[in-house]
Amino acid sequence: MSADSKRTRGGTRHPVRIASVASAALIAGLLSGAGSRADEQPPAAAVLDYACRLPAPAAGTASPADTPAEPVHAVVKVATQLPETAVPGRPIQVGPVQLEAVLPRAALTDLLPAGTTGIDTGATLGVHVRQNEQTAEATWSQLAGRSDLPAEGADLSLRVTGEVPTVTVSSPGDLELFGGDLTLNIAPAAGGTPVTVTCAPAEGDEPLLARAHVPGGEPSDGPSAGDSPDAGAGQGERDGIDVAPNAADTPTGADTCPPDMPTGELDLSQMPPPLPGTVLRDPITLPGQPVCAYAVGFGTVRKLDGSMVINDPSKTPALMNVRANAQTITYKSGPYYAALNSLAEVTLPDAESTFLGFGFAPVTAKVTFETGKLTISTGSIGNPPNREPFAVATFFQSLRIHDVKVNGTPLDVGPDCRTSKPYRATLRADFSEGGGYKDVLHGGVLSGVVDIPAFTGCVGKSGENVDALFTASISGPGNLVTMNQAEVCSPKGKDSPGCPPVIPPLPPIGKPSAP
Amino acid sequence: MRRLARNTAIATVALGAALGLSVTQASAGALATYTVTPGGAFTAVAGTTTLAVPSTTLTCTSSNAAGTLKSGSGLDGNGIGDISSLTFNGCDVAGIDFAVTTDPASLPWKINVTGMSSSDRADGTITGIRATISGFSCDATFSGSVTGWFENSTDTLHVTGGGSLAAEDDANCLGLINPGDHAEFNGDYVLNADQNISMQS
């Protein structure tokens, strides 16, 4: 496959594949191609039963309570549109989506200021995507709308609409979309504190939203790499279901690499050692060559059982600037060992996270990453046929938390609420079959587990120390970081392979590879 | 091996000087003739081969060669055989795959025998080499010669680096290979049939 076919920019731009926000996970395949909205079916409308949990009314409202209210029943109508038939390997355009949630009026009006006549609603609907034996999770997070709050009536209707990600499958077989958890962020249109309503499909309900037929022979329930016209684009070597935003919504990345390569010291401490008997030559320092790549992924906070998107590909992700091959290490005698060491830097954008703090209170926060220089080492160990490749990226990082809201209410934490010290993050590639990593130039998924230090400098509105709140809920070991690195752009190479750099899809949320 | 050959050459020159002769090693080589038995077409297989440049080493898991050895006696060592095809498999640098291809226009490469270190060992060179390493952001063509020796007892052509093999001016390989970089090509090619080279002076 030529480098051109991998680009996501220009006239043949492939949609960047993303399952947005924390709950999204790409189960398997990652294919792309030109989208199509031809031969659409009439809009399908599903009427689903949901159980919604509302926050407790604030003191002073009509029905104050000390504990969260019991779940209330909601009827959720979801109308969307799928092509009548679809083609494996081609993005299936879903939507636009119209969602209407009908809730008991009394339950909501208790949560809103008196005199509210209009409501702004933002909705996020989790969607289970199923085909044959494959499943994937999509998140329809761009749904929004304004609804009137009539003076009378037993129910309140909240309507939202929006565009949603495309779905790409690699095999024939009926594609089905099922409704998952629904989150409604409700705020008075005139301004005021929003409230969050979390809903789940009622037990026993089969919340089918839409179905599309994907003809093309016998369904496949297993991988069949390379059978797509666009297999190999991005992470196209894998099969299954891919969830991606609309091509029109995909951000454009940089045209090429930054003019100056990063400078600094390499950190070789996380490199795997050579085999016994290997004698190494002295490391050779080279000028290096400029390359760059996007890497996007998830950071999972173990205590909160939630993830945040790092370098969100649906927004404007940061480009990693690399001095490739700043140093080489080669064996002199004994079993083979060779490593190429590169130095990189990236200034990650703030991550926006939503967790259920202590299991029930929705907490939103922005996270600023302060990331040190990265050392990326790639190489291989041992003589054929037992040679083992490796790729490892290591760096130190600090977190700063700000713009915190608990249940929609801002929580002042001060400007310097951060981890008390930098922590090391070491991400390693999984070269195993299905691991999806080819080499450092072509990219793939790297993952590792980090130990988040205690927080410090967190100061509440009244000057009280709230470090413990974050230390208790976030700090600790076992936090998985998974990043998907795209193919690098090498502007100095012949025909500038990989340029402009590609924004990759989010990786699956999975287990870390073995160190 | 090259060291041994060089020492032998020095000893030869020293002996010649001691005897009041003015015969150089080159002219001695020119005077020598060789016998190849049986000669003819051959194929050869090598296990791991390496191409080392100053900054790193490319390895290939295997390599296949084919060529011809002249047959008979009274043969000139220069061009005593040729290599008409050479392929490399499973080549990588530090886990990054690269392809190695020979330049068809450069084939056949010449096998030259320059002397015998022992009855089992014919020293020589391979000349006319031109091959390209290519991969993601990597294109580097090497040309020149390498040294080596043929081992009669094992029918193995040992390619031992040295020579003039170097990257051409347009080499561009992620900063790993630069124009003028000398390359050490090493590999042991076992021929598919018995061959024997001997020298008559």
SSE topology:
The complex is a heterodimer of chains A (515) and B (201).
Chain A: E1 44-53, E2 72-80, E3 97-104, H1 105-109, E4 118-131, E5 134-148, E6 155-162, E7 166-169, E8 175-188, E9 195-201, E10 208-212, E11 241-244, E12 279-280, E13 284-285, E14 289-301, E15 306-310, E16 319-333, E17 337-345, E18 351-357, E19 361-371, E20 374-381, E21 388-406, E22 409-411, E23 418-419, E24 423-429, E25 444-452, E26 455-456, H2 467-473, E27 476-485
Antiparallel strand pairs in A: 1-2, 1-9, 2-3, 3-6, 4-5, 4-8, 7-11, 8-9, 8-10, 12-16, 13-16, 14-15, 14-16, 14-27, 16-17, 17-20, 18-19, 19-21, 20-21, 21-22, 21-24, 23-26, 24-25, 25-27
Chain B: H1 2-18, H2 25-31, E1 33-37, E2 40-46, E3 49-52, E4 57-69, E5 72-75, E6 81-93, E7 96-97, E8 99-102, E9 109-118, E10 121-135, E11 138-151, E12 156-160, E13 166-167, E14 172-173, E15 184-191, E16 196-200
Antiparallel strand pairs in B: 1-5, 1-16, 2-4, 2-15, 3-4, 3-15, 4-6, 6-7, 6-9, 8-10, 9-10, 10-11, 11-12, 11-13, 11-14, 12-15
